[in-house]
Amino acid sequence: MNPEQPDLELKRLGEFTGTENWYKTTGGILITDGVKYICDNGYAWFVDDAIAVIITHPKIREYLKKEDFLVIKLRLKDSTADMTIEDGRGRVLYKQHYEYTDAKRDLDLFYSGGVLCLPSEY
């Protein structure tokens, strides 16, 4: 794939049903092949923001002392987006709004055991 022309529609997303590799990010969080794919195709900003919140936000850090599962959602509306981090039971722990994005699809990620992955890789 040409890195100058990312696949913002993430046409290959359905191919990730597990991972062969883990990639270490800032703060020691690991990402899977599927998450690396979305990063390489124009969504690194979303993954970077999610990782930053997981690492630094006091409410998320406190939650992770007791529980070990988060759902990170990206929801698009026109050219704006919202990222939420939830507890897996629908309770929103964090929300961030983006005034502009060129993203083409909604995304969900799971975080558990220090690993950020696609739901199909969990």
> SS-based structural class?
alpha+beta
Measured on Cα atoms, how large is the radius of gyration? 14 Å
Q: What is the oligomer described by this structure?
A: single chain
In CATH terms, what is the fold-level topology? Answer: Nuclear Transport Factor 2, Chain: A
Number of strands: 7
What's the SSE pattern? EEHHEEEEE
For the termini, the CA-CA separation is: 25 Å
Structure description:
By secondary structure, the chain is an alpha+beta fold. The chain has one domain (26-121): Nuclear Transport Factor 2, Chain: A (Roll), CATH 3.10.450.150. 27% of the residues lie in helices and 30% in strands. It contains 2 helices and 7 strands. The radius of gyration is 14 Å and the shape is globular. The two termini are 25 Å apart. The relative contact order is 0.23.
List the helices and strands and how they pair.
Elements: E1 22-24, E2 30-32, H1 33-56, H2 58-66, E3 70-77, E4 80-86, E5 92-98, E6 107-112, E7 115-117
